[in-house]
Amino acid sequence: MKQLIYTSSASTGLGAKALAKIMASAQSNNEMSGVTGLLMYHDRTFIQLLEGEASAVDATFSRIRADRRHLRVLKLREQEGQDRLFPDWAMALARPDPTLEASGRGLKSFDKVIATLSSLRDGETDPRVLQLLHAFVEGAETAIE
Ligand SMILES: Cc1cc2nc3c(=O)[nH]c(=O)nc-3n(C[C@H](O)[C@H](O)[C@H](O)COP(=O)(O)O)c2cc1C
Q1: No. of H helices and E strands in the chain?
Q2: What is the pLDDT of residues 131-142, one digit of tens each?
Q3: Half-sphere CA count of 11, side-chain side, radius 13 A
Q4: Which of 4, 18, 66, 130 is the most exposed place for a label (fewest CB within 10 A)?
Q5: Do 58 and 23 contact (CB within 8 A), yes or no?
Q6: Which residue from 31, 61, 67 has its CB within 8 A of the most atoms of ligand 1, so it is best to mutate?
Q7: Overall pTM > 0.85
Q8: What is the CATH number for 49?
Q9: Domain of 24?
């Protein structure tokens, strides 16, 4: 099992509709290739965790990297041998802005994501991966307050 986490900048500000489109293809492709993970978006910045068989994660990431809806795709960590953090999420989208309706397939509230991340903290998960996701959530929340 491989985990890969990257950050990127949206090429233009993306609305709910554009994000839903990304999510629709992410979920159907990921279901087929056995990839799971989490995508967070705030203030034109993405962070995404992909997990699955190495070949599936690599193929997914090469498609994502070539996508012109975002720029400056920067890999933060890549490692093998971890259990899945989000085995039930073919891809989940979380946005910290509380004014955005948590609706649509795969759309999670930030609170739900934080709760899930906290429950994982006690497990066998590499804390560095969780720290990256946490840092994004905390940074986004500070920006909104
Ligand atoms: C931020 C971001 C995250 C994405 N995440 C995924 C993903 O997890 N899985 C995936 O297959 N495509 C993802 N995509 C879309 C791919 O870049 C690409 O458009 C898609 O895989 C093409 O497949 P399709 O022709 O079936 O839509 C993402 C795109 C962006 C901009």
Answers
A1: 4, 6
A2: 898 888 888 877
A3: 8
A4: 66
A5: no
A6: 67
A7: yes
A8: 3.30.70.100
A9: 2-144
Residue 98 CB neighbours (<10 A) = 12
The residue type found at 56 is A
pLDDT digits (tens, 9 = 90+) for 53-78: 999 999 999 999 999 999 999 999 99
Does any ligand 1 atom lie closer than 6 A to the CB of residue 48? yes
**Overall domain count for the chain:** 1
Q: In what order do the strands lie in the sheet with 2-10?
A: 70-80, 2-10, 45-52, 36-42, 92-95, 107-109
Look-up: residue for tokens 């994501």?
113
Dist CA 69 CA 15 (whole Å): 12
Q: Please say whether the beta carbons of 9 and 70 come within 8 A.
A: yes
Q: Which residues contact 144 (CB under 8 A, 6 or more apart)?
A: 96, 97, 98
> pLDDT band at residue 126, thresholds of 50, 70 and 90?
confident
